[in-house]
Write a structure and sequence with these properties.
By secondary structure, the protein is an all-alpha fold. The protein has a single domain (2-184), classed as Hypothetical protein af1432 (Orthogonal Bundle), CATH 1.10.3210. Helix content is 69%, strand content 0%. The protein has 11 helices and no strands. Helix 2 (11-31) runs antiparallel to helix 3, helix 8 crosses helix 10 and helix 10 packs antiparallel against helix 11. The termini are far apart.
């Protein structure tokens, strides 16, 4: 996976990707998850990120990856599903856990697996990220992956609201689901 990331990504995107892979590996080890799957998902989560938006949208249409009208209105959210499809169908990646983590790392989804939570959150909080309260989010993730992920989703929702940016239904559903899981232990 490392060779693929090096071939496809710009230097700047590769630095971010390596940060995600390292942080995902550390969090996985700390929380008793598979560090190999975590590192693998971290290395390939942004493979389609630098693909031209019109190409991402075209592939998402062709591969039937558009699930919400918001996907077409804001195609910047499509790089995860496009990368997962690309990895499965053109690079032969068969690990459903890794593919789901790649596909859902931008918006989240209800009933995310722990690996999906880990990649979603590592993408936001890897060591090259620098924004107010990022250290608080990192500590929250280290203390409790599920609660830390909820904090990351909440941070994203606040960021979008403050910037008057649209909130994708999946991100709101992710927040609602995590809150329910934590509050009711389901």
């Amino acid at each position: 996976m490392m060779n693929l990331a090096v071939r496809v990504l710009s230097e700047e995107r590769l630095i971010h990707t390596l940060g995600v892979a390292d942080w995902a590996d550390e969090l996985a080890r700390h929380h008793g998850l598979d560090p190999i799957k975590a590192r693998c998902a971290g290395l390939v989560h942004d493979l389609a990120k630098e693909m031209p938006i019109k190409d991402q949208l075209g592939l998402a249409r062709r591969w039937d990856l558009l699930c919400y009208t918001e996907d077409e209105q804001n195609p910047y959210v499509l790089h995860g599903p496009v990368a997962a499809y690309w990895l499965e169908h053109f690079y032969g990646l068969e690990d459903a856990d890794v593919l789901a983590a790649v596909a859902n790392h931008t918006l989240g989804r209800p009933e995310m697996s722990l690996l999906e939570m880990l990649i979603y959150s590592a993408d936001l909080t890897e060591s090259n990220r620098d924004f107010p309260k990022v250290d608080n989010l990192r500590q929250s993730l280290y203390d409790d992956l599920e609660k830390g992920t909820l904090d990351c989703v909440k941070h994203t929702l606040i960021y979008l609201k403050e910037g008057k940016r649209p909130i994708h239904p999946l991100t709101q559903l992710t927040y609602d689901d995590l809150q329910r899981r934590i509050n009711f232990g389901t």
